[in-house]
Specification:
Its EC number is 2.3.1.9. The chain is α+β, with helices and mostly antiparallel strands. It is 36% helix and 20% strand. It contains 13 helices and 12 strands. The longest helix is centred in the middle third of the chain and has 21 residues.
C-alpha cells in the first residue's frame, strides 16, 4: 500500500481562557498555522488539494464552515478547498486519518490536516445551550437514546469518575499525575523542546505594546501536591477536580500529509511516515475508556507490541484516562506524554489531535527516531489511534 508522510507539523502555544489569545478570531488562529505549514514545508500553496479542519464548537465564530474560513484568512489561494469535521476531541486526529487515507488511496497527493478551537470566544457546549435557551428542541439526545442507556445525559465528567472508581484510583494518585504533567511541561519549555513546533503569534495589549505568544499559558511551574489537594472535587464524593482534568484552551494546529510522489515532485523532506490508523467505538456512558480497546486493536493490526513504541501521547482529558491506559496496555510511564499533556498544556478540543501529533513528531525526532502512538478519548465512546515512524 502507498505510504503517507508528514512533512510539516506546527501548533500555536496554548492560551488560557480569557488569556493571551482572547482577541484572536479562530479563523485567524487556524490561518496562521496553515501559513506556517506551507512555509516550513517549502511548498507552493497552490498544490494543496484539501484542508481538513477539526473543530468541535461549530457555532458563533466557528460556524459557517470554519475550515474554509481558515483558508480564506490565510495566504493560501482560493483554489484550495476545505472541509470542517467533528469527531469531538478527536476531530483533528481524524483529520490526519482522512488526509492519510486520501494520500494512501492515490486520490490526492498534498493534504493539510488541521484543527482549531477558541474556547474563550466559543465556550464549550454553546451549540447545545443556544437553542435550549431559546426554547427550541430538547437537546442532542432524544428520549429513545436516554431510555436505551438509562441516562438523562452523557457526561465526560461522569465517565472520568467511573474510570477512577472502576480502577480504584485515589485522589492523591490523580493529583500526582497532574503534578507530573506540569513538571514535564515546564521542563520541556525550559529546554526549548517546543520551540520548533510553535507558531509565534503577535499579541497587542491595552497599551498597544506588542509581544510574541510562544509559551503555553497553562503550565504551572509552581504547582504542588498541596495546591492541587486544596481544590474542590467536581462531585461531593468524587476525585476529579479542575487540577487533575484538562485545561480549557485556545489554539490551532496542523500537519501536512503528502504522498511519496509529492515528496519527489516537490523536493519535500519527510519528518515521519504514517504507519497505522485505527478508530473504534464502545460504551457511550463511561466513554473515556475506549482508547484501551482501540490501542489493542491498533497494535494487533499493525503487528506491533507496546514495547516497539518509543513514545506515546494519550490525551490527558482527565488523569484517570492515561492512568487506566497505562495499566491495561502495560505501557512505560517514562514514555507517556514525555513533555506534559492537556492537564498542563491545555486541551483545545478540535485542535488537540494535530496538536498532540505535532508534539509527538518533534519529540521522536529529538529522540533520534522510532515509533510513536497517539490516542484520544472522544465523546460518544469513540477513540482514534495513530501510529507513526519518525524519519
Amino acid at each position: 500500500m502507498p505510504s503517507a508522510y508528514i512533512v510539516a507539523a506546527a501548533r500555536t502555544a496554548g492560551g488560557k481562557k480569557g488569556g493571551a489569545l482572547k482577541d484572536w478570531h479562530p479563523a485567524d488562529l487556524g490561518a496562521k498555522v496553515l501559513d506556517a505549514l506551507v512555509e516550513r514545508a517549502g511548498i507552493d500553496p497552490a498544490v494543496i488539494e484539501d484542508v481538513i479542519a477539526g473543530c468541535v464548537g461549530q457555532v458563533g465564530e466557528q460556524s459557517f464552515h470554519i475550515g474554509r474560513n481558515m483558508v480564506m484568512a490565510s495566504s493560501l489561494p482560493d483554489s484550495v478547498p476545505a472541509v470542517s469535521i467533528d469527531r469531538q476531541c478527536g476531530s483533528s486526529q481524524q483529520s490526519i486519518h482522512f488526509a492519510a487515507q486520501a494520500v494512501m488511496s492515490g486520490t490526492q497527493d498534498v493534504v493539510i490536516a488541521a484543527g482549531v478551537e477558541s474556547m474563550t470566544r466559543v465556550p464549550m457546549g454553546l451549540a447545545v445551550m443556544l437553542p435550549m435557551q431559546a426554547g427550541i428542541g430538547i437537546g442532542p439526545w432524544p428520549q429513545s437514546i436516554k431510555d436505551r442507556y438509562g441516562v438523562t445525559e452523557f457526561s465526560q465528567f461522569t465517565g472520568a469518575e467511573m474510570i477512577a472508581r472502576n480502577f480504584q484510583m485515589s485522589r492523591k494518585e490523580l493529583d500526582a499525575f497532574a503534578l507530573e504533567s506540569h513538571r514535564r511541561g515546564a521542563a520541556a519549555t525550559g529546554r526549548g523542546d517546543f520551540d520548533e513546533e510553535i507558531v509565534p503569534l503577535t499579541i497587542v495589549d491595552a497599551d498597544g505594546k506588542e509581544t510574541q505568544h510562544v509559551r503555553d499559558e497553562g503550565i504551572r511551574a509552581d504547582a504542588s501536591m498541596e495546591g492541587l489537594g486544596a481544590l474542590k472535587t467536581l462531585k461531593p464524593d468524587g476525585v476529579i477536580t479542575a487540577g487533575n482534568a484538562s485545561q480549557i484552551c485556545d489554539g490551532a494546529s496542523g500537519v501536512m500529509v503528502v504522498s511519496e510522489r509529492a515528496l519527489k515532485e516537490h523536493g519535500l523532506t519527510p519528518l515521519a511516515r504514517i504507519d497505522h490508523l485505527t478508530v473504534t467505538a464502545g460504551d457511550p456512558v463511561i466513554m473515556l475508556i475506549e482508547p484501551i480497546p482501540a490501542t489493542r486493536r491498533a497494535l494487533e493490526r499493525s503487528g506491533r507490541k507496546i514495547e516497539d513504541i518509543d513514545l506515546y501521547e494519550v490525551n490527558e482529558a482527565f488523569a484517570p484516562v492515561p492512568l487506566a491506559w497505562l495499566r491495561e496496555i502495560g505501557g512505560d510511564p517514562e514514555r507517556l506524554n514525555v513533555n506534559g499533556g492537556a492537564i498542563s498544556l491545555g486541551h483545545p478540543l478540535g485542535a488537540s489531535g494535530t496538536k498532540l501529533m505535532t508534539t509527538l513528531v518533534h519529540a521522536l525526532r529529538k529522540k533520534g527516531g522510532g515509533y510513536g502512538l497517539q490516542t484520544m478519548c472522544e465523546g460518544g465512546g469513540i477513540a482514534n489511534v495513530t501510529i507513526i515512524e519518525a524519519l
